[in-house]
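As described in the Methods, two query proteins were run sequentially through the folding procedure within a single session, without resetting any intermediate state between them. The first query and its resulting structure tokens are shown here.
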Amino acid sequence: MIKQVDKYIVQLNGFDLFVHLQQKHNWSDKKTFDFMRENNQDVSFYAEFERVKKEHLKKEQLKRQIMINKYSINDPEVIAVSQSAEVTPEEAIELIIDEDWICLTDEEADETAEDYILGSLWAFNPSFLSAHSDIDESVFELLQEKCEDSNDAILTMIKDVTGFIYDAISSDGRGHFISHYDGEEHEHKINNEWYYCYRIN
């Protein structure tokens, strides 16, 4: 099979053809293998490919099990995520490992929200930025056309960064800046400590 790459024509076979067909058609390994075999293409690589893939899968499963073993169903963060997501503690551990949910202390939540705010100043409402800088909204509208590239410049214009962060969180809540899924913050008191959970994915 031939493939054009820019102005060059290359002949694909074996594993290169296998990868090309998968990417082009979004086929499974088996469907790609069957197609190549039915069309008399070189599939001598496939046995080794399957062996390496299975070995990699075993390593990933072992790595995941090690991560799971670090948690207990009685861990406060597991309990908090379990209650927030309305799942069993075992399922909560899976959600934490997969980074679908995170659980933070009050201090950690403040720091995480602060980091996001300072890294996304360019996305704030121009009127909000203007109120914290005494600079006309139109200036921020122009800067925001550069998206992330304007962030550092906008930061230098904020008169009171601490006050800006406080007002942003007071206005929208920490969940707005931490939870990329629904902007919600779930709080739970466990063993006399407060924990804050956020759905990420």
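Immediately afterward, the second query was submitted; its sequence and tokens are:
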Amino acid sequence: MAGNSQRKGATRKPGTKKGAVVGSGGQRRRGLEPKGSTPPKEERDYHPAARKARAAAKRADSPARSGGSSAPRSRRTTKDGGEYVAGRNSVVEALRAVVPATALYVQSRLDSDDRVREALKLATERRIPLIETTKIDLDRMTDRSVHQGLLLTVPPYEYADLDELLGEIEASGDVPLLIALDGVTDPRNLGAVVRSAAAFGAHGVVIPERRAAGMTAAAWKVSAGAAARVPVVRVTNLTRALVTLQEVEGATVVGLAADGGTTVRDIDRDLVKGPLVLVVGSEGKGLSRLVGETCDVRASIPMISTVESLNAGVAAGIALYAVADARSR
């Protein structure tokens, strides 16, 4: 019956009236007001660009990537301690220098140029396996560094053992001549020292494990193939190794230092003709304190200009020439 308020649904409950209610105009007016410019995508937490920015900042602050110089973009370390040499110029230079390699990865459907053709030719001549792969895989292997479609894998260098090297020198009847590097961190300097060692008849190069350059692909390239003939020994403690050479082999340890009491040309002939170890320090700091105190003789390289120091590769070459010249006479 119409108008019967007792019937269920006959009356509306408060607040259920359709349409605008009293006081809604202000709410809708505020909803139409501008909220300002849209913030950059890096500042919006939900945006992928913001997540990438946070990840990049986290990588930059991590201990593994801070506190030292970063590796060249053309070189990455593999899981087994070897290297990835990436980029067309870097790969071609490594192949020209006969750097040991286990495989050459080539991006599928790669636009070829002179460098790509030369890399393929050199790898084929050396019977290095050619592996065709995708750009996605190359990006992953190089941690998204620039690879230009070419990637060369270099196995870890096999360092010689000091005792075995001394045994081989003794068996050959030669008088030991070694060169040790103290705090030389540039692999190109190490490669230059290896090359000079081969040129002037040194039997090997001794380097420490920590805070020193190792035999990387860059060192191989600078050595111009000499790394295949001159063994490189890596020792845990350089000072201890020098003491062993002094006590066991009777070697004279000569450290190159600007404040040396003599010059490399004036070292006693009897010392030069016996077992000898030349020690070269870093260009900036020179010999470390303990290594310097271990040296029997500190010798300088005479210079006529105001140049404060020479890099390790040049200093080692000059000193080795002086020793080789004195021994030949």
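The first helix runs from residue 24 to 31. We note this only descriptively and draw no conclusion about the first query from it.
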